[in-house]
């Protein structure tokens, strides 16, 4: 599994874990993220159960496992959080921050020791060491209860499935290199998996007020610099919810 340090400074560090060559080839590739601040860390969308050994091995190269004090699940999908039962055994004193709407569902993955911290619909913040992370509402994109994570110091938005791309090979670049070429891997995913143009437009209005250097999705490559605005413009113009035909 590749590890990339996205940001380091002002008392905290962002890591990306992705492109695991050992993952089963019939499951979707995912990006996992970790924010470390001193002796505290949070895992963001820590991955499916099949990735747990690779994730744990990658993490302990950088921090002791007991420094992981928090986990975050943007929504209920198994590709981001079906590993919960294994983290529950590994990190019994940690907290899981996830939408209130999905608590009864997420507990099916196993949550006997980790404390479930329900995020209200309007979002909230988490103090991690000296850093404040913001849980930004992203409801219906694509889950009915959904959040993203924004760090105003690092200028990183972990955007879940928004910005996701279904890339053809596991060794594709970690950062978008040619935006126009990249859209072919995003279009079908966003049109089908994002059900609401109203929700999309509401999210875009909210996100345009943020200072973002990196837009880091759960699948595919990270957008940086001017490509963040290019993505927002592209997404705004895209008609979504195409699984429903006619009136």
Automatic annotation (TrEMBL):
<feature type="domain" description="Metallo-beta-lactamase">
    <location>
        <begin position="29"/>
        <end position="219"/>
    </location>
</feature>
<dbReference type="Pfam" id="PF19583">
    <property type="entry name" value="ODP"/>
</dbReference>
<protein>
    <submittedName>
        <fullName>Metallo-beta-lactamase superfamily protein</fullName>
    </submittedName>
</protein>
<dbReference type="InterPro" id="IPR036866">
    <property type="entry name" value="RibonucZ/Hydroxyglut_hydro"/>
</dbReference>
<dbReference type="InterPro" id="IPR001279">
    <property type="entry name" value="Metallo-B-lactamas"/>
</dbReference>
<dbReference type="InterPro" id="IPR045761">
    <property type="entry name" value="ODP_dom"/>
</dbReference>
């Amino acid at each position: 599994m590749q590890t990339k340090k996205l940001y380091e400074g002002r008392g905290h560090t962002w890591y990306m874990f992705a492109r695991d060559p050992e993952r089963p080839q019939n499951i979707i590739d995912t990006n996992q993220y970790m924010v470390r601040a001193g002796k505290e860390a949070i895992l963001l969308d820590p991955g499916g159960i099949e990735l747990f050994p690779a994730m744990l091995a990658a993490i302990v190269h950088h921090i002791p496992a007991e420094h992981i004090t928090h986990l975050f699940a943007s929504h209920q999908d198994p590709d981001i959080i079906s590993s919960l039962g294994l983290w529950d055994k590994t990190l019994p004193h940690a907290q899981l921050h996830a939408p209130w709407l999905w608590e009864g569902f997420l507990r099916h993955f196993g949550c006997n020791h980790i404390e479930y911290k329900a995020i209200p619909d309007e979002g909230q913040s988490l103090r991690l060491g000296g850093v404040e992370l913001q849980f930004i509402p992203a409801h219906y994109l694509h889950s009915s209860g959904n959040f993203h994570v924004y760090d105003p110091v690092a200028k990183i938005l972990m955007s879940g499935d928004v910005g996701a791309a279904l890339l053809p090979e596991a060794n594709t670049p970690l950062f978008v290199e040619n935006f126009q070429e990249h859209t072919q891997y995003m279009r079908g995913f966003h049109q089908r998996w994002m059900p609401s143009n109203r929700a999309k437009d509401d999210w875009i209005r909210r996100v345009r007020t943020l200072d973002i250097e990196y837009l880091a999705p759960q699948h595919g490559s990270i957008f940086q610099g001017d490509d963040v605005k290019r993505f927002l413009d592209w997404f705004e113009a895209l008609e979504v919810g195409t699984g429903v035909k006619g009136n």
